[in-house]
Amino acid sequence: MSEVRNPNTNSSQQQQQQQQQQSFSESKINAAESERLYLEMKEAWL
């Protein structure tokens, strides 16, 4: 029996990868923003 491939599976996989990449870059931005805010707060305490 030959396997029938669903054409939608590939596109949904690509979509998932794009979402993962997007959330990864957003988390990098958030990390940099958090660090900046942390340093600002630290300076304010000093």
How does this model look, in words?
The protein has 46 residues and is mainly α. It has 1 helix and no strands. The mean pLDDT is 75.
Q: Main attributes?
A:
85% helix; mainly alpha; 1 helix
- The whole-number mean of residue pLDDT values reads 75
Cα end-to-end separation:
73 Å
For the report, how would you describe the main beta sheet? Answer: none
Shape: rod-shaped
Strand fraction band?
under 5%
Q: Could you list the spans in which at least 5 consecutive residues all have pLDDT below 50?
A: none
Quaternary arrangement of the chains shown?
single chain
The helical percent reads over 70%
CA radius of gyration: 21 Å
Q: How many individual β-strands?
A: 0
Question: Number of helical segments?
Answer: 1
Q: Structural class per helix/strand content?
A: mainly alpha
Pattern of helices and strands: H
Compact summary:
The chain has one helix at 7-45. It has 46 residues and is mainly alpha-helical.
Give a topology summary.
Blueprint: H1 7-45
